[in-house]
Structure formats: C-alpha cells, structure tokens
Design brief:
529 residues; alpha/beta; 19-stranded mixed sheet; two-stranded antiparallel sheet; 17 helices; disordered N terminus
C-alpha cells in the first residue's frame, strides 16, 4: 500500500525528450516534434517506461504496439513491467515495431524463447516492410540497424540464448542478462562453458552482466566452471565491466583470470559465488587492470585480507562488501588510504565501534556508507564516526544503519546534531528508535546553518515509534522530504486520516507502507491496493 495522488495504473512513469503532453491540443505549441495523432508520434531518442500490469497481455500488447508505432526515431527503449509473471506474454513480436534507429534495448520480464525469436527476427527479416494484422504499418529492422546495448530479465539464461545473441547482434558493446528461475534449470537447458565461449563473437563487448537471481529459488549456474571463465576472459579481452552472480562452481582461478586478462577492466562484481576467496585477489598488484568499482556480495570466504589487497587500487571509488561476514575492523585502516573512495558498503560485516573510530580518522571522501546488519556497532560508534578528525563526517550524505540492535535515539540525535550532509537515512529494524529521534530529525535544518535537509527516510519496522511521530511530517517539518518508509510501524496501521491529510498537503511526498527499500524497488512509486 502506498499513499499518493491518483495515477493511471497502466503507465506509472514515462521519461523521454521532449516531454509528452497529455493534452493533444497543446502538443504542437509546447512540443513541435509531436504530431496531433491518436497515438504517440515522437522524434525523441530516449523512451523509458515502467508499466504496471493490470490488463490481459493481449490488451497490454495492443496498447504497447500502438505507442511504439509512433516512435520512429528512438535510439533507446527501456520497457519494464511491474507485477507480471514470466508465463505472461508481453513482448512477443515486439521486434516488428522497434524503430530502425534503435541502439539500446532493455526489456523486463521476457520469456527466453520469445527473446530468442525476436533476436533471430532482428537479423532474418532486415529488409522486410509489412503491415500488421491490426492495420498499423510497421517496419522491421533495416540493414543499418546496429544494436549496441541489450538488457533482458528472463526466466532462464541458456546457451541457445547466448548463441542467438552472438550470431545476430555482433555490434553489441553492452550485454546485461539476468534470470529468475522458478525451478531448478535442466542440465540440458542451461548456460554452460560453451555458451560463454561463444561470446567471443561479440568482439566489441566492453560490458557484460550475467546474473542468476535467487529471488524465487536458491539456484546457480551449475554447468559453468573455471574453464568457462578462462574462455570468457580470453575471448573478450576488451571488457571494462564484469558482473557475475550465481557461479557456484567457479573457483579463485576462474575469477582471477578475468582480473589478469582483461586489461581495461574498471568494474568487477561477483555475488553468490561460494568458492571465491582471498586467493583470487592475492596478486592484485600484478594485475594490469585499474579497478574503479569492486562489489563482492554474500561471499563467505572473503576476509579483510582482500580489502588490504584493494588498497593498491588507488583509483577505487566504490567498494561493496555486503554480506561478507568475515570483513573486520582490521580492514578499515586500508580503506582509509583510498583517497578517491566515495561509496563503501560493509553491511553484515564484523565491524565494531573501534572500526568506525579508525574510519573517522581517514581522508576517504565517502558519501555513501552502509553498515546494515553490523550488529556490534552501537551509538558510540556512530558518535565516533562523526566526531573524528577525518573528512567522512563532512562528506557523508547517505547512511544505512538498518537492522542494528545497538542503535537508539542517541545515534539519531548525533546525526541530527552534526550530520550536516545527510540527505538519506535508513534505520529500518532499529527497535530502540522512538519519537525523540523523529523530533530531532524534523528540526535538523533549523538547528544547523548550512545543513542539508533529509530527502529520504526509511523507518520500516521501527516499533518504538508512535502515531505522535506523524505530527512531525506536517508542513512545517521535513520540508525537503520526498520519500519515507513507514511499513510495519504503528504509523501504518493507525492515524490514516492524518496520512491522507499529509498527502494532500505534500503531493510530492511518497509514503511507502509496504516495506520497500529506499525509493520503492528501483524507482517504483506504485503498489497494488
């Protein structure tokens, strides 16, 4: 549930340039590129739609086709459908309506077989010009069509899918694939070493992402081992960004081959890889790449030793170690030597107040810090973080203190008093936070000259809050607040009249009562009632 002004559930978000006006009579005046027809007729180059699935797929597809038919010059199309299952057919035959100028395509969700079909069609029917059964004219992709970026969220990633991509789209520079299986993939229909080897035919590839999500089931890429990584690293030496998730049979040798073979590698991410350990980063000084972003998520064998190796990457700006439980205080002295680091995620690590004291002495210009689940950090640690002689107390803008039993009103009062730059604060599952914290945060702007105001605040499951806290959301307080999470608090079950009043007074404020992460799951601001 979410309180917000009434909107069309079919189209919750639309971004393009120029802006589409709903009033057709005003189109020519405000936006000369738009034609006064009964569907969109755009000369813009970017279209991003995030759609909510309510209608039958047939109705949805007809509306989508009508819109795409009028977008003749698009270079980038991103279509994301929220609330849909993979057994629903949404993007079938979409290739018939894609403009010939398209360079970037993102679809979510799409069935693997449909994806294979439309990718083959992009190549097989390049010269066709036909008319759809609905009577709407369309043109298939012309010989000049050169898709450069493809992003798909699928039910399964298989060798057949990879083969269709490499055979049909040789000009790709970016390939992002994520699957969300609802059952264990068949050993005869899955991604294997052979699929990774075929990626060598995309000789321009600089950015690749292959993720097996555990959203529906704890599944992995079980038919890929070190040999698959060797073949990938040897066949795609131009890679600058690599994101891998769910490769449970790839060891240190396989991952290290990417670090040492891809000379231009800047971004490296691995998640849910049970065999990856410190050994993969043992000789990082000898690696030819210059890493800017490293994300290692939910890796039980990664310890502080890896962080110490990272200290040699002087250009490192992002270090994400969420879920690496063996990361301890001893790693933080190495982190403080990274003078370009702006984002640090230590969530779930074995960090204590002493570690935050070390971090507060450093000169890393950290703006985003996540300590979620660091259960040994207390109010004292937060105070030390902001009162050290280093720069983090001044540079920090986003702070996550979620699921930390040692955090109470004292820590929040410290942030309100001296956290001058904080604009986003997460304190979900902080049971000892009370109305006093809300009062302190509400007056933060008035107490400090030059202090930035909060824009996002996550209070999910803060059971110590009472309905009285809603009074601080009235017009005179939290003037810059754009999003607040109130799920599983007494604020979401009582005082609804006050919530409605707040929404009328501040229509730009999104109140999420569903427990979403900050910003409602990748930007969504709509929920089913």
């Amino acid at each position: 549930m979410q309180w917000m002004p009434k909107q069309d559930p079919q189209m919750m978000k639309m971004k393009e340039n120029p802006v589409v006006e709903a009033d057709s009579s005003a189109k020519e005046h405000k936006c000369p590129a738009l034609k006064g027809t009964n569907h969109f007729r755009l000369s813009s180059v970017l279209l991003t739609l995030e759609l909510s699935y309510w209608d039958l797929p047939e109705i949805f597809n007809r509306n989508l086709v009508q819109m795409l038919t009028g977008c003749s010059y698009l270079e980038s199309v991103c279509l994301k459908i929220r609330g849909a299952e993979f057994d629903a057919v949404f993007f079938r035959s979409i290739e018939h309506f894609l403009p010939k100028t398209l360079k970037i395509l993102k679809l979510q969700p799409v069935i693997e077989q449909d994806a294979i079909h439309f990718i083959h069609e992009l190549r097989a029917n390049q010269n066709n010009l036909e008319t759809a059964e609905s009577g709407i004219p369309f043109s298939l992709v012309s010989p000049g069509f050169k898709l450069q970026s493809l992003s798909l969220v699928l039910d399964i990633i298989s060798d057949q899918l990879i083969s269709s991509i490499t055979n049909s789209l040789p000009f790709l520079t970016e390939l992002h694939l994520e699957d969300r299986p609802t059952k264990e993939p068949s050993p005869f229909h899955d991604l294997t070493n052979g699929g990774l080897q075929s990626l060598r035919f995309c000789c321009h590839l600089t950015d690749i992402s292959l993720i097996r999500s555990r959203q529906n089931l704890p599944v992995y890429f079980r038919r890929v081992n070190d040999m698959g990584m060797f073949l990938l690293s040897e066949g795609c030496k131009l890679l600058e960004s690599v994101r891998l998730g769910g490769f449970c049979r790839v060891s240190d040798a396989g991952f290290a081959s990417i670090l040492h073979s891809c000379l231009h590698l800047k971004k490296f991410e691995v998640r849910n890889a049970s065999l990856l350990s410190d050994l993969a980063f043992h000789d990082l000084n000898g690696a030819p790449c210059s890493l800017v972003e490293v994300k290692l998520s939910s890796l039980s064998l990664i310890t502080s030793e890896t962080v110490q190796q990272m200290a040699s990457s002087r250009r490192l700006e992002v270090l994400d170690l969420f879920g690496c439980r063996s990361i301890a205080d001893s790693s933080l002295s190495s982190i403080t030597s990274l003078d370009k680091l702006t984002t640090l995620n230590l969530g779930g690590g074995d960090i204590t107040d002493r570690g935050l004291s070390v971090l507060s002495q450093g000169y890393s210009p950290i703006t985003h810090l996540c300590l979620r689940g660091c259960k040994r950090v207390t109010d004292k640690g937060v105070s030390l973080l902001f009162h050290g002689c280093g720069v983090i107390g001044k540079t920090l803008t986003v702070l996550d203190l979620g699921n930390m039993p040692g955090i109470s009103d004292k820590a929040i009062l410290t942030i309100a008093a001296v956290g001058t730059g904080i604009t986003e604060l997460c304190i979900r599952y902080c049971f000892h936070v009370t109305d006093s914290s809300m009062e302190a945060l509400a007056t933060k702007r008035r107490l400090q000259d030059g202090s930035k105001s909060l824009q996002r605040l996550d209070l999910f499951h803060c059971s110590g809050l009472s309905v009285k806290s809603l009074e601080s959301l009235k017009w005179h307080s939290f003037q810059a607040l754009k999003w607040i999470g109130l799920g599983h608090t007494c604020l979401s079950g009582k005082g609804n009249d006050m919530l409605i009043e707040i929404c009328h007074e501040r229509p730009w404020l999104n109140l999420c009562l569903d427990g979403c992460e900050m910003g409602c799951h990748d930007g969504w601001h709509f929920h089913r009632p």
